[in-house]
């Protein structure tokens, strides 16, 4: 199947995502190694690495490579569509008008 990809950048979304990353990293820093269940970390688990020590304890480290990658992609959004003949601006506006359809479904419920 052929597909078309449209990538956009939104500075407002980048700032929001960056604040979210900061919040999750701070939460990961505050949790202690003895709380090292992935479920304890929740959403911030993607920013940590866990390894078992010889004494049976689990050591956690902040994974700065993942954080840097997330920061570099903050603000970018990719729309993938099978509408290969459609203009990029039409794809973008159609995508952003989907909220109207979703709102109609909510009202019908």
Folded structure, characterized:
This protein has 109 residues and is of the alpha+beta class. It contains five helices and four strands; from the N terminus they run E-H-H-E-E-H-E-H-H. The chain has helices at residues 11-30, 38-41, 64-73, 88-96, 98-108, and strands spanning 4-9, 48-52, 58-62, 76-81. A hairpin with a 5-residue loop joins strand 2 and strand 3. Helix 1 (11-30) runs antiparallel to helix 3 (64-73). The longest helix is centred in the N-terminal third of the chain and has 20 residues, at 11-30. The chain is elongated and about 60 Å long. The two termini are 34 Å apart. The model has no long low-confidence stretch (mean pLDDT 86).
Total number of beta strands? 4
Instruction: Describe the main β-sheet briefly.
Output: 2 strands, antiparallel
Overall 3D geometry? elongated
Helix percentage range: 40-55%
- Which whole number gives the mean pLDDT? 86
Order of helices and strands: EHHEEHEHH
Radius of gyration: 20 Å
Widest sheet: strand order? Answer: 1-4
How many angstroms separate the termini? Answer: 34 Å
How many DSSP helices?
A: 5
How would you summarize this macromolecular structure in one to three sentences?
The protein is an alpha+beta fold. The protein is 50% helix and 20% strand. The relative contact order is 0.20.
Key phrases:
109 residues, alpha+beta, two-stranded antiparallel ribbon, 4 strands, 20% strand
């Amino acid at each position: 199947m052929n597909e078309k990809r449209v990538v956009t950048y939104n500075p407002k979304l980048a700032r929001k995502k960056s604040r979210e990353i900061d919040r999750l990293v701070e939460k990961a820093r505050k949790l202690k190694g003895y709380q090292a269940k992935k479920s304890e970390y929740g959403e911030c688990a993607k920013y940590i690495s866990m390894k078992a020590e010889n004494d049976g304890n689990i050591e956690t480290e902040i994974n700065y490579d993942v954080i840097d990658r997330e920061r570099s992609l903050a603000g970018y959004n990719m729309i993938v569509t099978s509408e290969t003949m459609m203009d990029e601006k039409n794809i973008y506006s159609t995508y952003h008008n989907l909220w109207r359809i979703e709102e109609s479904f909510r009202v019908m419920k």
